[in-house]
Amino acid sequence: MGCYVVDFLCPDAKLAVELDGGQHSTETDAERTRIIEVHGYLVIRFWNNEVNENIEGVLARIMETLRASTPHPTPLPDGERE
After folding, report:
1. How far apart are the C-alpha atoms of 77 and 82, rounded to whole Å?
2. Phi/psi of residue 63, nearest 5 degrees
3. Can you tell me the distance from the alpha carbon of 24 to that of 22, in angstroms, rounded to the nearest whole number?
4. Residues 9, 29: contact at Cβ < 8 Å?
5. Which residues of the chain carry a pLDDT beneath 50?
6. Torsion on CA atoms 19, 20, 25, 30, rounded to nearest 10
7. What is the pLDDT, as a whole number, of residue 30?
8. What residue spans define the domains of the chain?
9. How far apart are CA 8 and CA 47, in angstroms?
10. Residue 32 burial class via C-beta count within 10 angstroms: exposed 0-12, middle 13-18, buried 19 and up
11. Using an 8 Å Cβ cutoff, are 46 and 58 in contact?
12. 8 A C-beta contact, residue 17 and residue 44
């Protein structure tokens, strides 16, 4: 995205996941997020230690974000399914 390499990207969902460690600064991350969002992506961020210590929580938040940002077709083409 621009001059940045995104940590994880899901083009179909227009979702970018960024992992932040001690080298990240709030100011730099804000600009990076802005550039990625200009390309039409939603950005969610996690600290590296969150991934290492609570991967289930990280995955749950990613799934919640995907569910919230992905509209269902109306009506659903093959009926209602999980």
Report:
1. 13
2. -65, -40
3. 6
4. no
5. 82
6. 30
7. 87
8. 8-69
9. 14
10. buried
11. yes
12. yes
Res 78: pLDDT: 56
- What is the per-residue pLDDT across 14-35, written as a single tens digit (0 to 9) for each? 999 999 887 766 668 888 899 9
**Cβ(36)–Cβ(30) below 8 Å:** no
Q: What is the mean pLDDT of the chain?
A: 84
Q: Which pLDDT value is given to residue 82?
A: 47
Long-range own/partner contacts, residues 2-7 (CB < 8 A, 24 or more apart): 2/35, 2/36, 2/38, 2/39, 3/35, 4/32, 4/35, 4/36, 6/36, 6/41
H-helix or E-strand spanning residue 67: helix 55-69
